[in-house]
Design goal:
The structure holds 2 protein chains of 2 kinds. Chain A is mainly beta. Helix content of chain A is 0%, strand content 54%. The relative contact order of chain A is 0.33. Classes of the chains: A mainly beta, B mainly beta.
Chain lengths: 111, 110
């Protein structure tokens, strides 16, 4: 079974803090994705990566950056957290751009 | 126009009912189509791919109409465990990310 893990299920941070969300997959997938999910807005793609050290902006990259130094790990970074970044963050991986396997999500609250 | 549109529902049906969800997509170049299921407070998981000829998996039937840019999901003999949000998903071309609809919520009651 594919396993995608995320570093925290729940996280509370203060405005202005730098936040790191980590995602690790164990199936040697090339593709990894970061989404946020908000009520009424659905899943929105923040960044994705097709290879180590490679990244592509998704639909809402502003305020975020990513890092992929190893194939199995894809990190999402909030340089200076703001309250409008309070959300559920979901990481996913895939072997091809078809079936994506999601992690359990991190519910981030910025106060 | 949004890329993938779904009726958000909720659809409230009794056990045993047949329920159908519809989805439209805006990009005629879309190549791959899927239905994902997301349980409350859980991550989305692939339910089934959708093929041009239509396909069935047990009580679930998916249909694709490329001319109308329309995808459907039919659930027969609904179970309580079918209660979830169903996400319509398209992929424009190989090498691009998936595009998710906002989801349709189904609640099956006894």
């Amino acid at each position: 079974d594919v396993k995608v893990t995320q570093s925290s299920r729940y996280l509370v941070k203060r405005t202005g803090e730098k936040v790191f969300l980590e995602c690790v997959q164990d199936m040697d997938h090339e593709n990894m994705f970061w989404y946020r999910q908000d009520p009424g807005l659905g899943l929105r793609l923040i960044y994705f990566s097709y290879d180590v050290k490679m990244k592509e902006k998704g639909d809402i990259p502003e305020g975020y950056s990513v890092s992929r130094e190893k194939k199995e790990r894809f990190s999402l970074i909030l340089e200076s957290a703001s309250t409008n970044q309070t959300s559920m963050y979901l990481c996913a991986s895939s072997l091809s751009p078809t079936e994506q396997y999601f992690g359990p999500g991190t519910r981030l609250t910025v106060t | 126009r949004k890329e993938v549109e779904q009726d958000p529902g909720p659809f409230n049906v009794p056990e045993g009912a047949t329920v159908a969800f519809n989805c439209t997509y805006s990009n005629s170049a879309s190549q791959s189509f899927f239905w994902y299921r997301q349980d409350c407070r859980k991550e989305p998981k692939l339910l089934m791919s959708v093929y041009s000829s239509g396909n069935e998996d047990g009580r679930f039937t998916a249909q694709l109409n490329r001319a109308s840019q329309y995808i459907s999901l039919l659930i027969r003999d609904s179970k309580l465990s079918d209660s979830a949000t169903y996400l319509c998903v398209v992929n424009h071309q190989a090498g691009t990310a998936l595009i998710f609809g906002k989801g349709t919520t189904l609640s099956v009651s006894s």
